[in-house]
Design a protein that fits this description.
By secondary structure, the chain is α/β, with parallel strands linked by helices. The chain folds into three domains: about 5-120, 2-Layer Sandwich (Gyrase A, domain 2), CATH 3.30.1360; about 150-205 and about 380-445, Up-down Bundle (Four Helix Bundle (Hemerythrin (Met), subunit A)); about 210-370, P-loop containing nucleotide triphosphate hydrolases (Rossmann fold, 3-Layer(aba) Sandwich). The chain contains 15 helices and twelve strands. The strands form two sheets. It has a six-stranded mixed β-sheet, with helices on one face. A hairpin with a 2-residue loop joins strand 8 (about 255-260) and strand 9. Helix 6 packs antiparallel against helix 14 and helix 7 packs antiparallel against helix 13 (about 385-405). The longest helix has 25 residues, at about 150-175. It is flat. Residues about 235-250 and about 435-445 have low confidence and may be disordered.
Amino acid sequence: MSHTIAAIATANGVGSIAIVRLSGENALNIALSIARKEKLLPRYATLSPLYTQSGELIDEAILIYFQGTKSFTGEEVIEFQCHGGFIVAQRILRAVLEYDVRLAEPGEFSKRAFLNGRLDLTQAEAIASLIEAKSDDAARILARQMKGELREYVENIRDALLEILAYSEVVIDYAEEDLPQDVVDQILAKLQAITQNISKTLESSRRRAGLMQGYRVAIIGKPNVGKSSLLNTLLDYERAIVSDIAGTTRDTIEEQVRIGTHLIRLVDTAGIRKSSDEIERIGIERSIAAIEGADVVIALFDASRNIDEEDQAILELINRYKEEKPFIIVLNKSDLPRQFEIDTLAAYSPIHLSCKQESRELVDALSSLMDHDNNSEEMMLISERQISATSEALRSIEESYEPLESEELEIFSFHINQAIRAMASLTRPYELDEMFDKMFGQFCLGK
């Protein structure tokens, strides 16, 4: 990391302010040269003209100097806060690059912060996710993780597992020492508490994955029931083609829309029915795949027509997947005389509306469903990497029970070691010395 790096830290486009960030051992000297100043006070905003090496004025900007011990990257950092737009920030960046400065690679500022011990992996992931947060709840969770909430959770589990490993290793290697008689029982009790803790976190994280990625809401129904009209109403513009001809939608259409405090992905699917049309048949298969990949499913029925075989096919799908995900049942065309048998869907408390006129009740139902059980105070893993590593740790812990019960402690210790390494991959590498510290500190061995 010997090179000083630079990049524009704000998004492209016209705005009042743009930021150019500089990080590395030469950052301060370069800033002093460009601003033609002798010194900059750390953490003070200094207004100054900026010049190219040839003496051409670039802009009058604010410079902020962050010393290495207190900067984001752990290196000398300078931020140039200049007038926004397409040109000024680019000119400052070009002027900086004239001083043997390299253009930063994507994510390199955060990478340097991690390598310099200013961030752990959970904080780095939280920063990246916060930028693309899809809901207020997600933003609150990520803000806390940036402050180290998940790191503390992982450290507590690591410490508990290290203590268990220390117990096990002491029994193996120091059996002649004065040790508690109920060591195995103590290990088992601690292990069960950790298992319950991790299992709860994994279940909660999988259940609420839509908080981070954006809830995926699939709209299903037979052809010509009003799915595209509903999509257009929710989006407030005509994204999908609306026609009286059955089978108009041949593929899935996906769009984003904000519902309450959540950004959701709406998926309009092809009508589900038996078809000899190969293209339409593929569309129907994709519709079923959309249901399987959805967090919430809106099942749309035509209230002005009697139930037919195609409606029955939708009901079969609801019964097939109702234990896996929530369904919102909507009876469309409520402005027309009702023919649909309401008792068939009474258990689902169907919503009655006309897609072309009003969708407020459906919007409220979606918002309530996504807000339900989204306790932002509950611990949550925010990425597939974190879920995978934690699942691996849980698997290793579960595999350790059998050798513990048979007192095959070498094999037991192996599984606990694997669990510690899996949890450590969330934040920082696991060092064997940590286990030794626990051993000799806990039991006062080697006296």
